[in-house]
Design a protein that fits this description.
The complex is a heterodimer of chains A (255) and B (212).
Chain A (H helix, E strand, L loop, with lengths): L5 E9 L2 E6 L2 E7 L1 H11 L4 E5 L9 H10 L6 E4 L5 H9 L4 E4 L1 H5 L2 H10 L4 E9 L7 E5 L4 E6 H10 L4 E6 L11 H10 L4 E4 L5 H9 L5 E4 L1 H4 L5 H10 L7
Parallel strand pairs in A: 1-4, 1-12, 4-5, 5-6, 6-7, 7-10, 10-11, 11-12
Antiparallel strand pairs in A: 1-2, 2-3, 7-8, 8-9
Helix pairs in contact in A: 1-2, 8-10
Chain B lengths: L4 E5 L7 H10 L4 E5 L2 H6 L2 E4 L5 H11 L5 H6 L4 E4 L1 H4 L4 E2 L5 E2 L6 E5 L12 E6 L1 E2 L13 E6 L1 E5 L5 E6 L3 E8 L2 E4 L7 H12 L6
Parallel strand pairs in B: 1-2, 1-3, 3-4, 4-14, 5-7
Antiparallel strand pairs in B: 5-6, 7-11, 8-10, 9-12, 12-13, 13-14
The chains are: A alpha/beta (255), B alpha/beta (212).
Amino acid sequence: MALARRIIPCLDVDGGRVVKGVNFVGLRDAGDPVEIAARYNREGADEITFLDITASSDNRDTIVDVVERVAEQVFIPLTVGGGIRSLKDVNKMLRVGADKVSFNSAAVANPEVVREASDAVGSQCIVVAIDAKRSDSDNMAFEIFTHGGRRATGIDAVAWAEKMQAYGAGEILLTSMDRDGTKAGFNLPLTRAIAEAVDIPVIASGGVGNLQHLVDGVVDGKADAVLAASIFHFGEYTVGEAKAYMREQGIDVRL
Amino acid sequence: MTAQKIAIVDYNMGNLRSVYNALAFLSPKSDIQITHSPDVIEEADRIVIPGQGAARDCMEAMQAAGVKQRIAPWIASGKPIFGICMGMQLLFDHSSENEGVDCLGIYGGTVRRFETDSSGDRKVPQMGWNAVEQREHPLWHGIENNAHFYFAHSYYLTPSDDNISVGLTDYGRVFTSAIARDNVFACQFHPEKSADAGLQLIKNFLNWNPVS
């Protein structure tokens, strides 16, 4: 028997508000993080991910306050990413109530930080987020990008996921960059390539526009969990509807 | 819910904030202390023993915090006690983690690591939502049988006396995911992260008056 597949609403947080962009730009206000997180919890979300997309470091501490307030009212696992650079950042988030913390650009700049954090707090607390898209190069199928998708790295996405697993990552949060915000569905070849390469859970993200896309991510992409933002924020679907649909399609979910 | 004194036993293993938050959410008027002070714990109406991390570290941390020898007398006192995750495993005889660690030995049983499975379907640690099949116990009141709870662990308990098991979970093998005896209830999963089912379990604990 395997675990239930998870549905994870993602809140992009900027200056203490939830926002949502298309292809990493063009932000639109979607509401108060505590209210939204509480609503998703009521609807049956299995976990909530906060992504701090604050551009200026002055506002960085607003995410700490958001996590702390949500953790007082929402009793499911909480993951925080965006701007996490060190074990100190990890500890700060865990102390205010996060259960997992996600590294992205900092892991590329210094992979040892993943090992250090995982040794200190356990790999179940450490997620590595990967933003990837199809590569034009002959050497690799998918390339990873950092800094909110702005900076190419020349690193092969599959090799990178394997390396992060070896460094102690407990989970991979994989965003199909060229799909993010497009509502065209996950990049399934990318998702499957990563899911088949590693033994740790893979969360598929980027591009969900309808409920069938969630099913495709699990069935064709082989993801352990699916993450979505805009289909939930703007009321197109509830998390409960998403779960009911997945169950109808034969996927084991927690209802 | 009536105001009461609740002690969360702090021996420096793991983040106790979520456990605190859940208790405070359910019983805002209660006096909830995160503490290793025997005086505070012995004065409390109810005791919660959480814990995260490796078995050896936890046993050493219990020793260092001065709580290791006191858990058995606290249990004997008849107060309602709730163990979570390592706070359940450590009540038993032995864990095979870290080349073998003797635990508190309050109950008979051993803790072993899950075998990995070649198909890749079953990952270790088990991290996520799994179903718990209930055996009769007042703490399951209002919770559907086979409701899902949130797990994050690599080691599982096999008690010597099967009658102590009150919750069973299937993760490649069926293992004991909750135990109860007299005034003690303990579980492998994290009720403080298990949404409504978890909150209901904690609420039932706060209302529980075990007959001893």
